[in-house]
C-alpha cells in the first residue's frame, strides 16, 4: 500500500457558505488514490454536518480535473480484496456525493477521464472550460470503465454513454454540454466566475428549502408518474409548514427581500 500523502484535499469556506474542495494531486493529474477517496469522503461528511456550508464546489489542482483511478496504485495491489476495497470505497464516495443534501457543483478544466468523468456525472451541476475533455477510456487499456458507467449511464442517454464507453474516445466540453453531462462550457477565464456565481446564487436561498428540494428531486425520478405527483404533493404540504415558506411568500407579496431562517 502506498504511503499516505499530505494535503491531498484543500478546503476553503467563504462567508457566503460556499465550500470549495480542491483535489490536490497535480503531479498525478488528481488521480483518485485510496487516500484521496478517503479525504473526499471525510470532507463531504463533515460538510453535511456543518450548518455553515450551503453549497460544495469540487475542483482539481494543476493541469486538469481528474484522470480517474491511480493506475500505478491499482497495479501495486496483490489481491482481489485490495481491488474490491478500492472500488467499494470509491462507489461509497460517489453515492455520498449523490445523496448529499447540499448541492455539489464541479468546476472542470483540462480533462475528466474514467472515474474523473464519473465524478462529473455524479454531482448535481457541472461547468467546464471550453477546452476541457471528457472520456471513459478504459477499453483502450483492457480495463472497461464499468464503475464510471453507472454514473454516466444515469446522466446521459444509453447511446451517448455507450459510444463513450465502447470507443474510449474523448468528447469536447461543447458535446458534453449538448448531451447533458455538464451544464455549460465557458471560456477558461470565466470558469471560476461562472461556478462561484451559480454557487453563491444557490447559497443565497433557504438551505432548508434547497435541501428538501434536492432530496425530492432524487426520490421522485425513480417513481411512476402518478406516484411521483403523489409524493411531491406531500413534499409541498410539508414545505408549507416551514418558517421559510411563510417568510418567502410574505416577502414576495410585500415586495421585499426574504430573511431566511433555514427552517
From TrEMBL:
The keyword Ribonucleoprotein does not apply. Belongs to the enoyl-CoA hydratase/isomerase family. May play a role in fatty acid biosynthesis and insulin sensitivity. Keywords: Fatty acid metabolism, Lipid metabolism, Lyase, Transit peptide. One of its GO terms (molecular function) is hydro-lyase activity. It comes from Oceanibacterium hippocampi. Pfam families: ECH_1. InterPro entries: ClpP/crotonase-like_dom_sf, Enoyl-CoA_hydra/iso, Enoyl-CoA_hydra_C, Mitochondrial_ECH-domain. One of its GO terms (biological process) is fatty acid metabolic process. This is Enoyl-CoA hydratase domain-containing protein 3, mitochondrial. It comes from the Bacteria.
Amino acid at each position: 500500500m502506498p504511503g499516505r500523502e499530505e494535503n491531498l484535499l484543500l478546503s476553503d469556506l467563504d462567508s457566503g457558505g460556499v465550500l470549495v474542495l480542491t483535489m490536490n494531486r497535480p503531479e498525478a493529474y488528481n488521480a483518485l488514490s485510496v487516500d484521496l477517496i478517503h479525504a473526499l469522503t471525510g470532507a463531504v461528511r463533515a460538510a453535511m454536518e456543518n450548518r455553515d456550508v450551503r453549497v460544495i464546489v469540487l475542483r482539481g489542482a494543476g493541469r486538469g480535473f481528474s484522470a480517474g483511478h491511480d493506475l500505478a496504485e491499482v497495479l501495486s495491489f496483490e489481491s482481489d480484496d485490495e481491488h474490491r476495497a478500492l472500488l467499494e470505497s470509491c462507489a461509497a464516495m460517489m453515492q455520498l456525493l449523490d445523496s448529499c443534501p447540499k448541492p455539489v457543483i464541479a468546476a472542470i478544466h483540462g480533462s475528466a477521464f474514467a472515474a474523473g468523468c464519473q465524478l462529473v456525472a455524479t454531482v448535481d451541476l457541472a461547468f467546464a472550460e471550453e477546452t476541457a475533455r471528457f472520456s471513459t477510456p478504459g477499453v483502450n487499456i483492457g480495463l472497461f470503465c464499468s464503475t464510471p458507467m453507472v454514473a454516466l449511464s444515469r446522466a446521459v442517454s444509453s447511446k451517448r454513454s455507450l459510444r463513450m464507453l465502447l470507443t474510449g474516445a474523448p468528447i469536447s466540453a461543447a458535446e458534453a454540454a449538448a448531451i447533458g453531462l455538464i451544464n455549460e462550457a465557458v471560456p477558461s477565464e470565466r470558469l471560476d466566475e461562472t461556478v462561484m456565481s451559480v454557487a453563491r446564487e444557490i447559497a443565497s436561498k433557504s438551505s432548508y428549502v434547497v435541501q428538501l428540494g434536492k432530496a425530492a428531486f432524487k426520490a421522485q425520478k425513480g417513481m411512476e408518474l402518478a406516484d411521483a405527483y403523489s409524493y411531491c404533493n406531500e413534499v409541498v404540504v410539508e414545505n408549507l409548514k416551514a418558517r421559510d415558506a411563510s417568510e418567502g411568500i410574505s416577502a414576495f407579496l410585500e415586495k421585499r427581500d426574504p430573511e431566511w431562517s433555514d427552517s
